[in-house]
Amino acid sequence: MTDKMIEELGLEAICPFLWGDDSQEAQNYAAQWIYVNYAAAAYAEFLSQGRGVLAGPFATGEDGELLDCNRLKNALFESGEMWTASVSYIPVGRKDFAAAIPQPEIRKRLAPALTSYNPELEVPILLMRNAQAHVFLPNFRREAFSPRYLYEIGTTERVAGGKVILSGPGQPTPFHNSVKAEHFKPISVTFGVR
Asked: Does 76 map to a domain?
């Protein structure tokens, strides 16, 4: 990570990306948050359902509605509304894959990566903003902590004070991700706002 390493890779890591920051740093933090929290689950899902993509983060308000950029900013800086974030594993073979990723041009771009990535070492991540595909990282990975390794030791890693903490064996290494990223032009979506 950068010199501005956050103390814990918590929800604050995804906020800049979700509220509209398109910088490489914001995208990297969001992808790292997804990997740290969901890589082991992605491998487990691969074992049970086959190849897929981690899509998210999805910010949800107290009312269960998805938060768009403006409502998230309002929740963080004005209203203090409680919110959560989630990520979905979307298996390619799932009947409703097309419903989960409704844009055919995006599904077509995802297809080659979803049939060729190594699920033991990397996780395809589709960064979502306002419930729309925004950036695709086809082979996001960590050099020392593969999805399979995290699955086998039954833990997810946490970052505290600039150091990776694991409950199992292993030597921490810096975060690493692919330089290849596909950016998607967002389409308009209406959200319920209080």
From this structure: yes
